[in-house]
């Protein structure tokens, strides 16, 4: 297996240009995902999905101080305190729920440690869609199959970096061996703290988190949920053994309930003779 | 009432994706799988205790439920022609993989179990007697009388001799696959990031087991002469009680995450299901007295079991659609573990 590769998305230098979205669409030949005017911000893409493998979130954060009391409030910003931009992508989790629950083996882990859907195997069961704790993978209804970021598996096989990272003009999206990226990210967040930006924090970098660490991790400038990311995602299959134990209990209860119903002779108010067919039936079992 | 939770989100958009499964496919499959699973167990018990007539009904119900359920499952796929890809791998980490194998084995077993009772080994009059009156009435008498005879005649004697034994063995085996069939679907739903489903992983299997028992009991009551349907009525009563109890525990334990179970469309569906199930269960307890009571009870329980499944799917959708249910419990978990500052810095960036 080759080295585990990853994305480090440093949102402190993201300018929201969406070159990553375009490059991803172009390289991977992804169909359009609708032309919707969302009227929330400069983001008209909305979210990741079957036909959106990079999504630039754009947050116009309003001031916590009412606009009329804000000293900067007369500059026409209408109480807007600042902009946050972040290019979201599949996290390629160490413990990937989509991969765990895929019943066909269409989702697999590549030699680069990434998680990829084999389009020629996927039968569109849709189970990976609600399993993902980040809401990344989705079923393309026109096509019937599930799609998501492959971290440009084909380009990696050819020794190239993924299209989004290649196109990023500010190196907000960095691609490389995961160990190197983690070290670089730790340095970067340290430096930002030194520059008086205590709000800088890494997201998804820790192998101790609920998904065992993400191969695509982020430097964020606000809580993850502000960017539409779950604050503490956990791979759903972590509780699977417990789920099966409860289901086993329920299955046994079902058998018990049926057994009780028959052994009691089905005697309920209004019950006349039991439904037995007579001595022959009892003795000979069910074979008449 | 749960106090309104404060949380932040990306313009109120959901964090996770809603289940993409369609109506009526998915809830119908959940119902039919439960019906078939519990009916298979009833078939075993009826056979072992010598209740031929109830065994016949149960075996046929189990086979029809599994077959129709499989059809809904295949129709739900984005690429139905690739349904056999489900059997490419055997994957314990995927409840859908395990479920596919369970369904494949269970539907095969129930079909073999039902074949002899429907085909060769019974006189035509008994077959006709086993069909609901409406079906029998709509067929010419000559057809109902001659069909089984024609089938029997066309089968080699060796086959007709082996069929009953194979059917009995298959029925016994379906007593093992049946309970799995009726409860694995709860794990299927719980093993997702949908908060209302995942957090309900203790109660959902019992809710589904109860719903399955009620459905199979109802089918047994409706399709078996009243004098012989006693155990089916008991199964229906116990199932309705289990479903009602599991639902009550689920809604009281989950707190904020459980809101979708009693709000909006899901709440309305589940309230309707509760009335139908509880009412049908109470009626079943006295249904031995009359034809009308039996029919009312059986239909109410069947509707209750079906509506429960629609309500559960809808609750999952509502739970996924509101970021509150994803963000707030995760935020509380982080703060409880002291892994995150309880309060964000007043000014978040320059």
UniProtKB/TrEMBL annotation, chain A:
The keyword Repeat applies. It is found in: Cell envelope. Its main location: other. The chain crosses the membrane at residues 246-268. Residues 5-33, 81-112, 113-142 form the 4Fe-4S ferredoxin-type domain. One of its GO terms (molecular function) is metal ion binding. The keyword Protein biosynthesis does not apply. Keywords: 4Fe-4S, Iron, Iron-sulfur, Membrane, Metal-binding, Repeat, Transmembrane, Transmembrane helix. Pfam families: Fer4_11, Fer4_4. One of its GO terms (cellular component) is cell envelope. Signal peptide: none annotated. InterPro entries: 4Fe4S_Fe-S-bd (IPR017896), 4Fe4S_Fe_S_CS (IPR017900), FDH_Electron_Transfer_Unit (IPR051555). This is Formate dehydrogenase beta subunit.
From TrEMBL, chain B:
It is found in: Cell membrane. The chain crosses the membrane at residues 28-48, 60-78, 98-119, 131-151, 204-223. The keyword Membrane applies. The keyword Cell membrane applies. It is a multi-pass membrane protein. Keywords: Cell membrane, Membrane, Transmembrane, Transmembrane helix. It comes from the Bacteria. It holds the Pfam family NrfD. InterPro entries: NrfD-like (IPR005614). One of its GO terms (cellular component) is plasma membrane. Belongs to the NrfD family. This is Formate-dependent nitrite reductase, membrane component NrfD. It comes from Streptosporangium canum.
């Amino acid at each position: 297996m080759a080295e585990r590769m990853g994305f480090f998305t440093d949102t402190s230098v993201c300018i929201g240009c969406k070159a990553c979205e375009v490059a991803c669409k172009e390289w991977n030949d992804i169909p359009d995902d609708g032309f919707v005017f969302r009227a929330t911000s400069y983001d008209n893409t909305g979210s990741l999905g079957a036909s959106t493998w990079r999504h630039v979130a754009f947050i116009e954060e309003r001031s916590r101080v009412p606009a009329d009391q804000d000293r900067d409030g007369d500059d026409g910003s209408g109480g807007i305190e600042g902009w946050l931009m972040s290019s979201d992508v599949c996290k390629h989790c160490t413990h990937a729920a989509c991969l765990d629950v895929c019943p066909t083996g269409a989702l697999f882990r590549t030699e680069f440690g990434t998680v990829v859907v084999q389009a020629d195997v996927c039968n569109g069961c849709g189970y990976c869609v609600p399993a993902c704790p980040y809401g990344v993978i989705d079923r393309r209804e026109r096509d019937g199959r599930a799609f998501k970021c492959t971290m440009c598996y084909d380009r990696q096989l050819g020794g190239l970096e993924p299209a989004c990272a290649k196109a990023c003009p500010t190196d907000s999206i960095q691609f490389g061996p995961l160990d190197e990226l983690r070290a670089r990210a730790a340095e970067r967040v340290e430096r930002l703290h030194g520059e008086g930006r205590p709000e800088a924090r890494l997201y998804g970098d820790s192998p101790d988190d609920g998904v065992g660490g993400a191969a695509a991790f982020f430097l964020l400038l606000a809580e993850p949920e502000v960017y539409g990311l779950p604050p503490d995602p956990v791979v759903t299959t972590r509780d699977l053994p417990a789920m099966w134990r409860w289901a086993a209990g329920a299955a046994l209860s079902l058998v018990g309930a049926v057994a009780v119903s028959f052994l009691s002779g089905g005697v309920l108010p209004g019950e006349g003779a039991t439904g037995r067919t007579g001595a022959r039936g009892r003795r000979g079992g069910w074979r008449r | 009432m749960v106090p309104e939770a404060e949380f932040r989100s990306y313009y109120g958009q959901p964090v996770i994706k809603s289940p993409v499964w369609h109506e009526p496919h998915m809830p119908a499959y959940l119902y039919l799988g439960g019906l078939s699973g519990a009916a298979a167990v009833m078939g075993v018990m009826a056979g072992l205790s010598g209740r031929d007539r109830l065994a016949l009904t149960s075996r046929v119900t189990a086979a029809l439920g599994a077959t129709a359920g499989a059809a809904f499952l295949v129709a739900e796929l984005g690429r139905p022609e690739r349904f056999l890809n489900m059997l490419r791998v055997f994957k314990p980490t995927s409840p859908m993989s395990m479920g596919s194998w369970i369904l494949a084995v269970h539907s095969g077993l129930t079909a073999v179990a039902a074949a002899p009772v429907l085909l060769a080994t019974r006189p035509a009059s008994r077959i006709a007697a086993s069909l609901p009156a409406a079906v029998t009435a709509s067929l010419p008498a000559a057809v109902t009388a001659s069909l089984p005879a024609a089938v029997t005649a066309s089968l080699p004697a060796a086959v007709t001799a082996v069929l009953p034994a194979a059917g009995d063995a298959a029925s016994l085996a379906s007593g093992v696959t049946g309970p799995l069939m009726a409860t694995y679907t709860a794990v299927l739903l719980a093993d997702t990031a949908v908060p209302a489903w995942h957090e309900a992983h203790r109660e959902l299997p019992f809710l589904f087991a109860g719903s399955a028992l009620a459905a199979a009991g109802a089918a047994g009551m409706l399709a078996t002469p009243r004098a012989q349907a006693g155990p089916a009525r008991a199964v229906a009563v116990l199932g309705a009680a289990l479903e009602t109890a599991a639902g009550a525990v689920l809604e009281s334990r989950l707190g904020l995450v459980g809101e979708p179970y009693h709000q909006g469309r899901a709440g309305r569906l589940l309230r309707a299901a509760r009335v139908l199930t509880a009412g049908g269960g109470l009626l079943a307890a006295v249904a031995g007295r009359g034809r009308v009571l039996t029919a009312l009870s059986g239909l109410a329980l069947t509707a209750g079991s079906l509506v429960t499944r629609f309500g559960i799917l809808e609750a999952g959708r509502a739970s996924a659609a509101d970021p509150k249910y994803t963000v707030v419990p995760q935020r509380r978990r982080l703060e409880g573990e002291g892994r995150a500052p309880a309060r964000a810095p007043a000014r978040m960036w320059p």
